[in-house]
Amino acid sequence: MTSLETMAQWVVFVLGGAAIWLISDDRSARRQRWGWLLGFFGQPFWIWITWENAQWGMFALSVWFLFVWGKGAWRRWLI
Question: Would you say the C-alpha torsion 48, 54, 58, 60 has a positive or negative sign?
Fold first, then answer.
């Protein structure tokens, strides 16, 4: 694994974990709002890693998640 792949995995870990943590916080709509954005920005790293490792099922799921995170970000930030 290259250092670039290692860095991408850390980005996936940090952004994905933070996103789930924030959207599950039912005390603060403002925090939930940030969770959708972090999740959206983390997905390209998931897509790249799964593509590079030929994990096609995870790749397809990552593309789907990109749309889901994008839908949430769109609703919380632009509407």
Answer: positive
- Domain limits for position 52: 3-77
- 66 CA to centre of own chain: 7
Rg (CA), the chain: 13
If 0-12 CB within 10 Å is exposed, 13-18 middle and 19+ buried, where does residue 31 land?
A: middle
Number of domains in the chain: 1
For the chain, what is the mean pLDDT? 95
pTM confidence score: 0.91
Three-state helix/strand/coil letters over the chain: CCHHHHHHHHHHHHHHHHHHHHHCCCCCHHHHHHHHHHHHHHHHHHHHHHHHCCCHHHHHHHHHHHHHHHHHHHHHHCC
